[in-house]
C-alpha cells in the first residue's frame, strides 16, 4: 500500500540533468519538513548540499554502473551530530521511513524509469553510515519496482 502523498512531493531537476538523462552521475538528495510533512527531491549531477540542514536526516542516492547493469546506492548518516543513544533512535527512524523515501524517489523520477524500465530491477544497496559498528552496515533493500507508487 502506498504511503506517499504525491501532492506533498516537490521535485527539482538541476543543470545537466533532464527527466531522462543521464543515468550515471545522477545524484538524488531527498529532504523533508517535519512541520508540513513535505518531501523535497533534488536531482542533479551533484548532491544538493545547499538543501541539507544540521539535523543531517537527508537521503542521498546515486546510480552506479556495474558490469551487469546498474546499482542504486543510498547513503544515510546515522550519527549526524548526535551521541550514541541518538544514533539508535535515528537508525530506527531511517529504517521506518526508508520505504517512503524510496517511493518518493521512484515516483519523483518516474520518467527515467519509464524510459529505462530495466532500472526498476536494479539492486538497491543502502549504506547506513555510522562511527558505531553495529549501525555502520550495508544492506540490500530489493529493487525499485517494490517501491513503485500505487496511486
Question: Would you kindly provide a written description of the structure presented here, covering whatever features stand out?
Answer:
The chain is an alpha/beta fold. The chain has one domain (about 5-145): Severin (3-Layer(aba) Sandwich). Helices cover about 20% and strands about 30% of the residues. The protein has two helices and seven strands, in the order βββββααββ. It has a seven-stranded mixed beta sheet, with helices on one face. Strand 6 (about 125-130) and strand 7 (about 135-145) form a beta hairpin.
Query: How many structural units, i.e. domains?
Result: 1
Estimate the global geometry from the Cα principal axes: globular
What integer is the average pLDDT?
92
Q: Count the beta strands.
A: 7
Structural class: alpha/beta
Order of helices and strands: EEEEEHHEE
**Could you describe the largest sheet, including whether it forms a barrel?**
7 strands, mixed
**Strand content range:** 25-35%
Q: What is the CATH class designation?
A: Alpha Beta
The level of helicity is 10-25%
Task: State the gist of this model.
The chain is an alpha/beta fold and 151 residues long. It is built from two helices and seven strands; from the N terminus they run βββββααββ. The protein starts with 8 loop residues before the first strand and ends in an 8-residue tail after the last strand.
Question: Which key features would you list for this structure?
Answer:
151 residues, Severin, alpha/beta, 7-stranded mixed beta sheet
Layout of secondary structure:
Layout lengths: L8 E5 L13 E6 L6 E6 L14 E8 L2 E9 L6 H25 L1 H6 L7 E7 L7 E7 L8
Parallel strand pairs: 1-3, 5-6
Antiparallel strand pairs: 2-3, 2-4, 4-5, 6-7
